[in-house]
Amino acid sequence: MEGATVSPTSPASFLPSLLGVFAHPDDEALLAGGVLAQHAAAGAATAVVTATWASGTHRAGELADALAILGAGTPRLLGFADDRIPDSAPGRPRLCEVPMDDVVKGIVEHIRAVRPQVVVTHDAYGQMTGHPAHLRTHEATVLAVHAAGLEYRYPDAGAPWRPQALYAATHPDSGAVVLSRRLQQVGKRTLTVPDAHITAAVDVTPWLVQKERTILAHRSEVAKERPLPGILSRLSTAERESIIQTEYFTRLSAGPAVTPLSALTV
Questions:
Q1: pLDDT, tens digit (0-9, with 9 covering 90-100), for 64-113
Q2: What DSSP assignment string belongs to the chain?
C-alpha cells in the first residue's frame, strides 16, 4: 500500500468512522477536509477534536460553520490557548505549556466517546511549517490512541476503545512544490517528507467544493496575509485546486487489520 493513489470511485461502503485531531480551527479543512466530507457523505461517522481555542470565541464559531459544511458534527474543543493568542482561551493554559498528560487525557475522552475506527492527526514535523502546536498535538494524539484502549489508563475518561489505525496528514516532496513556494513567499519555512513515506494519496476532487467552502468558513484567517486560508483565497482557482485536490497520509500504527485509507479513500 506504500505510495498508493486513491481513486474517488473507491467503494464508499467500506469507509470507516473517522476522528480528526488537530491543533487549530482550520487545520481540519486544510489537511483532511476532503476526506472528512467524503466519509460523511458515505454515511460514516465523522468528528473533529481541536486542541486550541475555547467555546464562545470567534474561531470556535468559524469552526462550527466549517464542520457543518463537512458534515462532521459540532466542535469538540480541548479549550487550551493558542500559544501567541491568550484571548483564544481566556484563563486557560497554553497548549504547549500544559502537562502532556492533560492533553492526552482530553484526547482519550473524545476517542472513547466517538469510538472511531480511524484517527487522523498532524505529522511528526508539525506540518510544513513546523508549528509547535501542531507538533504537540501530534505527540499527544499518538499517545492517546494507544492509551484509549487500555482499561487502567484514564479510567474516568470512558470505556476503553482501540482505534484500528492512526494516520498522519503530511506533505510529500513531489506533491508540495507549489504550496512550498507560496509559503516561502510570506517568510515561512517548509518541511516535507520523502514520497516513499506516503501510505495514501487521496484524490478529493469530488468534494473540492465542500473543502473550499470549509476553508473559507475560517473567515478571520482568510482575511490575513500569512495564514494558509488567506494565501489560498487569493490564488487563481486553478492554482488553488492544484494545491488542495489531493490529501496525503502516512499510516503510523500497525494495529489489527482494517480496510486502509488507501483502499477506501481514506
A1: 999 999 999 999 999 999 988 999 999 999 999 999 999 999 999 999 99
A2: -TTEEE-TTS-GGGPPPEEEEESSTTHHHHHHHHHHHHHHHTT--EEEEEEE--TTSHHHHHHHHHHHHHT--S-EEEEEBBTTBGGGSTTSPBTTTS-HHHHHHHHHHHHHHH--SEEEEE-TT-TTTT-HHHHHHHHHHHHHHHHTT-TTSSGGG-S----SEEEEEE-BTTT-HHHHHHHHHTT-----B-GGG-SEEEE-GGGHHHHHHHHHT-HHHHTSSSSHHHHHHTS-HHHHHHHHSEEEEEE----S----HHHHT-
